[in-house]
C-alpha cells in the first residue's frame, strides 16, 4: 500500500490532523444507478496500522520534539475516507471541496457513516491539551442524510452531536484532551440506514504545549548509614592501611573507593608536581605502562592527598560544570569522602585526568565421560557430559563438552592458553590447572580470603569459585569442570581495586596471558564517570594491545543502559555507569536462567553494553569453607563472565595464531540467539570451535569402553558373568549398535570365539572356564 499523506503535531501551535491513508485497488464498475448515493449497497473500506510501532513524526518547530502514532485504524462504509475533500462516491479521490452550510474548508476528512478513525495522542516533548473540529453533513447531499458524530477519549465517550441531517447547522467540537492517550472519531448512521450519510470532520485541530524538562537538580549529602563493604585495605607500604569510603546515586548502586587517595594519569612531570604541591600529595604507587609494553597508556600514579583544604560547598557547582545534566541525590559515607570527591572534581574541571581508586564488589571427552565430584545436589550426575549448562542437546545447547571432543580429535588439546583471574580468595586445589598464583597488593598473601564484599554478602573464596567456573580441570574425579579446563594455564592475581587490577593486567600481558576476567562491578552516577577515566583508559589500552578482557554485568536485574526519563521524557543520558562492564575494551557478560535461553531476572542487561550471556548457575567444587569433594550450585554473573572467558580460550586453543579481534568476532558471531529481547546473544562453544576447526572427521570407528569383566578375568563355569560396555560415535550424531564377542578355551584347550549378545549390558553364562573378553564392537 502507498502512503498518501502523513500528519504532524507542532508544539505551542495547532495543526490539521492528517490521516495516513492507503490507496488500494478501486472496486469494479457499479451497475448504472439513478442515484449512486442511495442504492442500498455498502462499499466498506478499512485500514489498520501495520504490526509493530509506527514511524514517529517530529514535533517542529520548538525546543522539543513530539513523537506520536498518527493513526491506529480507520474504517468507512462508502469507499475510502477522503483527505481534504468530501466522501464523494465510492472511489478514491472522487470527493469535492469540503462544504458545510456554504462554508468551504481546505483541511479535514470526508467520511460516510458508519465510519471510525483512531489516533494516538502519546507524545514526547509536548502535552496535547485540546481537540476542536467543525462537524456536519456535507452540502453535496443537500438536506438529506442523518448521522451522529461521537468522540471517544481512551475508550470513554466525551462528545455526541445527536442526530444531524443535511439541513442541520454546523456544530463545533471543543474537548479537553490533556493526559489522554487515544482519540477515536466515530460517525453513526443515526439508526436509519446509510443513504446520503456524507459526514465531514472539517478543520480538525489538536492544540499542544511544548514541555520543557525540569531543571536538573543535584544534592550531595553525607549518609553515615552508608558503609563500604570493608573499612580498609592493606597499605601499599605494607604497614599503613588504606581507609575505604562509599557513595551511592539515586538508584542505590554503591561504589566503594579508597578515601584518601586519587589516581592521576599523566606523562607530564610538571602536571604531576603541580597536583602534588596543591594537595600535599604523596605518591603511593607508580605504574609505567610503557615500560611494560603498553605505550598507549599514560603513567598512572596513586597519590595520597590532604583534602582538608577542599571546600565541599564547591562540589555541586563543579559537578554541574563538568556535566550540566547532573541531577539526583548523591550520598557519601563520610566527610573525608566528600572532601576527596571535591578535590577530584576540581582537578577534573581543570583538565587533569584524575579518578577514584574504586574497589569492585564481586558479583555473585571422546567417550563422552568426564567424571567430577562423586556427589552433588538433586539428581546430580558426576559426568560433565550430562550437565545442561555444558553439553549439547539441552535447552541452552552450548556444547562445551563437544568442543572438547572436537579439539581432541583435531589434536589441539595440547595448545595451552594463559587465562588470568583478577580477584581475591584463591586456594589451590585439584581443580586448578597448572599455573601461577600471585598478589598485586604488597603484604597481602595471594591465597588469603577476599577483601571486600559481594553484591549478595560475604564471599571469602570468590576467586576460587570464579577460577573453577572458567577452567576447573575435567575428568579428574574431583570438584567440577570449567570450559577452559582441558587447555588452560591459570594466572590468578589477588587484585580487588583499580590500581592493583591495572598492575596485574600489565604483568599478566607481559607473562603471555591472552584473556583476563574481572568478576566484580560497581555503578557510579553518570555525572561521576570522569572519576573512572584512568580505569577506562587502562582497559581501552590493554584491549588495543591484544588482551581480551571479560567482566561481569552485575546481579541487580538492572538495565545498565537505562536513561534519565523525568516526566516520561528520556534525555538520552544514562543514569549510572557500571564499571568495568561499560568500560571501553571490555566484553561484558550477563547471565542466563537455569536451563533456559532467557535472562536470569537478577542479571543486569543492556542492549548497548552487555555483549553476550552465559550460564548464571554452574557447579562449583571444594573451597576452604566447603572441604568435601562434592559439587554445589553457585549463581551470579561472577560465574557467567569466566565461563564466557573460558569459551574464548577454547577458540584460541583451536588456533593459537588468531588475533584477539578474531577470537572476539568468532565468539560473538557464532553465538546463539535468544527469544528474550534482553539477551542479545549467548555463548555457543561448539559452533565457535567448529568454525575454526571444521566438523568432526567422518567415518571414524566408535570409541569402545569395556567396564565388566576386566580383560583376563577368571570366572566359574555355569556362573553368570556381567558383560557391560559402552561405545560412542566420534562424529557425535551416529547410532551405535552392539555385539559381544567372547573368546575362551574349551575343555580340550582350544580357543573358541562366540557372539553371545547385542545389548550394552547383559548377563552371560559360560559353559567352560576362563572366558577372555576381546571387546565390544560398535557398528
Automatic annotation (TrEMBL):
CDD domains registered for this protein in UniProt: Peptidases_S8_S53
Top-level lineage group: Bacteria
Domain Glycosyl hydrolase family 98 putative carbohydrate-binding module: 60-208
GO biological process terms, semicolon-separated: proteolysis
Signal peptide: 1-23
Enzyme active site: 423 (charge relay system), 462 (charge relay system), 638 (charge relay system)
InterPro entries: Galactose-bd-like_sf (IPR008979), Glyco_hyd_98_carb-bd (IPR013222), NPCBM_sf (IPR038637), Peptidase_S8/S53_dom (IPR000209), Peptidase_S8/S53_dom_sf (IPR036852), Peptidase_S8_Ser-AS (IPR023828), Peptidase_S8_subtilisin-like (IPR050131), Peptidase_S8_subtilisin-rel (IPR015500)
One Gene Ontology MF term: serine-type endopeptidase activity
Family affiliation: Belongs to the peptidase S8 family.
Protein name as catalogued: Glycosyl hydrolase family 98 putative carbohydrate-binding module domain-containing protein
Organism in which the protein naturally occurs: Deinococcus aerius
Amino acid at each position: 500500500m502507498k502512503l498518501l499523506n502523513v500528519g504532524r503535531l507542532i508544539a505551542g501551535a495547532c495543526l490539521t490532523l492528517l490521516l495516513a491513508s492507503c490507496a488500494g485497488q478501486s472496486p469494479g464498475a457499479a451497475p448504472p444507478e439513478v442515484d449512486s448515493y442511495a442504492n442500498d449497497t455498502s462499499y466498506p473500506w478499512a485500514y489498520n496500522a501495520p504490526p509493530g510501532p509506527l514511524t514517529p513524526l517530529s514535533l517542529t518547530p520548538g525546543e522539543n520534539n513530539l513523537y506520536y502514532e498518527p493513526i491506529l485504524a480507520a474504517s468507512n462504509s462508502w469507499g475510502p475516507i477522503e483527505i481534504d475533500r468530501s466522501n464523494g462516491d465510492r472511489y478514491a479521490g472522487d470527493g469535492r471541496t469540503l462544504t458545510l452550510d456554504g462554508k468551504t474548508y481546505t483541511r479535514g476528512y470526508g467520511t460516510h457513516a458508519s465510519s471510525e478513525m483512531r489516533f494516538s495522542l502519546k507524545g514526547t516533548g509536548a502535552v496535547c491539551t485540546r481537540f476542536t473540529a467543525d462537524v456536519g453533513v456535507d452540502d453535496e447531499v443537500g438536506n438529506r442524510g442523518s448521522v451522529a458524530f461521537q468522540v471517544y477519549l481512551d475508550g470513554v465517550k466525551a462528545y455526541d452531536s445527536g442526530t444531524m441531517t443535511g439541513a442541520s447547522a454546523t456544530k463545533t467540537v471543543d474537548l479537553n484532551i490533556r493526559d489522554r492517550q487515544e482519540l477515536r472519531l466515530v460517525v453513526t448512521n443515526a439508526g436509519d440506514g446509510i443513504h446520503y450519510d456524507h459526514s465531514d470532520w472539517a478543520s480538525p485541530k489538536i492544540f499542544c504545549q511544548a514541555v520543557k524538562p525540569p531543571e536538573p537538580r543535584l544534592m550531595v549529602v553525607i549518609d553515615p548509614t552508608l558503609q563500604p563493604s570493608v573499612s580498609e585495605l592493606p597499605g601499599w607500604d605494607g604497614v599503613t592501611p588504606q581507609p575505604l569510603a562509599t557513595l551511592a546515586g539515586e538508584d542505590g548502586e554503591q561504589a566503594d573507593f579508597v578515601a584518601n587517595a586519587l589516581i592521576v594519569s599523566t606523562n607530564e612531570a610538571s602536571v604531576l608536581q603541580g597536583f602534588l604541591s596543591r594537595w600535599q600529595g604523596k605518591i603511593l604507587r607508580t605504574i609505567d605502562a610503557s615500560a611494560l609494553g603498553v605505550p598507549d597508556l599514560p603513567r598512572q600514579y596513586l597519590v595520597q592527598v590532604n583534602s582538608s583544604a577542599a571546600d565541599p560547598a564547591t562540589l555541586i557547582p563543579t559537578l554541574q560544570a563538568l556535566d550540566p545534566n547532573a541531577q539526583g541525590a548523591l550520598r557519601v559515607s563520610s566527610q573525608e569522602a566528600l572532601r576527596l570527591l571535591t578535590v577530584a572534581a576540581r582537578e577534573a574541571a581543570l583538565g587533569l585526568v584524575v579518578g577514584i581508586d574504586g574497589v569492585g564488589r564481586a558479583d555473585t571427552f571422546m567417550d563422552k565421560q568426564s567424571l567430577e565430584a562423586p556427589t552433588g545436589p538433586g539428581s546430580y550426575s558426576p559426568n560433565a557430559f550430562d550437565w545442561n549448562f555444558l553439553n549439547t542437546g539441552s535447552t541452552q545447547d552450548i556444547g562445551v563438552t563437544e568442543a572438547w571432543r572436537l579439539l581432541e580429535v583435531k589434536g589441539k588439546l595440547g595448545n595451552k592458553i594463559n587465562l588470568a583471574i583478577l580477584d581475591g580468595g584463591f586456594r589451590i586445589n585439584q581443580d586448578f590447572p597448572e599455573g601461577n598464583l600471585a598478589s598485586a597488593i604488597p603484604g597481602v598473601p595471594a591465597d588469603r580470603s577476599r577483601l571486600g564484599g559481594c553484591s549478595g554478602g560475604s564471599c571469602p573464596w570468590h576467586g576460587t569459585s570464579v577460577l573453577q567456573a572458567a577452567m576447573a580441570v575435567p575428568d579428574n574425579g574431583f570438584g567440577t569442570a570449567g570450559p577452559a579446563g582441558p587447555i588452560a594455564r591459570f594466572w590468578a592475581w589477588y587484585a580487588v581495586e583499580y590500581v592493583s587490577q591495572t598492575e596485574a593486567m600489565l604483568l599478566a600481558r607481559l607473562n603471555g596471558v591472552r584473556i583476563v576476567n574481572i568478576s566484580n562491578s560497581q555503578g557510579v552516577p553518570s555525572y561521576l564517570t570522569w572519576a573512572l577515566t584512568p580505569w577506562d583508559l587502562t582497559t581501552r589500552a590493554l584491549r588495543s594491545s591484544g588482551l581480551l578482557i571479560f567482566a561481569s554485568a552485575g546481579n541487580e536485574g538492572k538495565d545498565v543502559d537505562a536513561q534519565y526519563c523525568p516526566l516520561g521524557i528520556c534525555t538520552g543520558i544514562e543514569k549510572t555507569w557500571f564499571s568495568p562492564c561499560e568500560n571501553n575494551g571490555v566484553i561484558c557478560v550477563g547471565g542466563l536462567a537455569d536451563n533456559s535461553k532467557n535472562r536470569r531476572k537478577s542479571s543486569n542487561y543492556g542492549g548497548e553494553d552487555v555483549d553476550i550471556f552465559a550460564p548464571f548457575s554452574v557447579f562449583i567444587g571444594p573451597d576452604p569453607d566447603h572441604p568435601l569433594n562434592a559439587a554445589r550450585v553457585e549463581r551470579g554473573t561472577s560465574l557467567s563472565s569466566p565461563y564466557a572467558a573460558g569459551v574464548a580460550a577454547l577458540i584460541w586453543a583451536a588456533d593459537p595464531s588468531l588475533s584477539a579481534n578474531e577470537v572476539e568476532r568468532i565468539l560473538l558471531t557464532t553465538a546463539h540467539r535468544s527469544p528474550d529481547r534482553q539477551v542479545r546473544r549467548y555463548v555457543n562453544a561448539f559452533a565457535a570451535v567448529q568454525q575454526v576447526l571444521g566438523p568432526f572427521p567422518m567415518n571414524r570407528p566408535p570409541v569402545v569402553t569395556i567396564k565388566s569383566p576386566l580383560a583376563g578375568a577368571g570366572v566359574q563355569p555355569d556362573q553368570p558373568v556381567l558383560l557391560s560396555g559402552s561405545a560412542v560415535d566420534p562424529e557425535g550424531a551416529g547410532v551405535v549398535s552392539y555385539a559381544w564377542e567372547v573368546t575362551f578355551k574349551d575343555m580340550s584347550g582350544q580357543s573358541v570365539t562366540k557372539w553371545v549378545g547385542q545389548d550394552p549390558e547383559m548377563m552371560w553364562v559360560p559353559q567352560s572356564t576362563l572366558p577372555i573378553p576381546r571387546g565390544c564392537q560398535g557398528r
